[in-house]
Amino acid sequence: MKRRTIIIAVLLMLFAVTGVYAEGEGTADTASVAKYIAAAIAVGVACIAGGMAVGKIGAAAMGAMSENAELSGKALPFLGLAEGICLWGFLVALLMIIM
Known about the structure:
By secondary structure, the protein is mainly α. The protein has one domain (about 30-99): F1FO ATP Synthase (Up-down Bundle). Helix content is about 90%, strand content about 0%. It is built from three helices and no strands. It has helices at about 1-25, 30-65, 70-99. It starts with a helix and ends with a helix.
């Protein structure tokens, strides 16, 4: 129930922001405003997901390293992959804005 409420609130905000920016004189059209909103969502979702992944992988890696210190080199690539999610979100947002 909580997830559905959050999704509805986000969609209502998106439609409200698009309508406000589209009504003023000399402002960009709705597609231009939607492009920036989509880019912001791409970066936001990617960074939240990347942060959740780094948190879980980091906690597991620290637990494994507390038992065996030699596992630190094996855990670092997984942290790098999780951080790469944020970079891909930024790249997608950059391509949305440019094109």
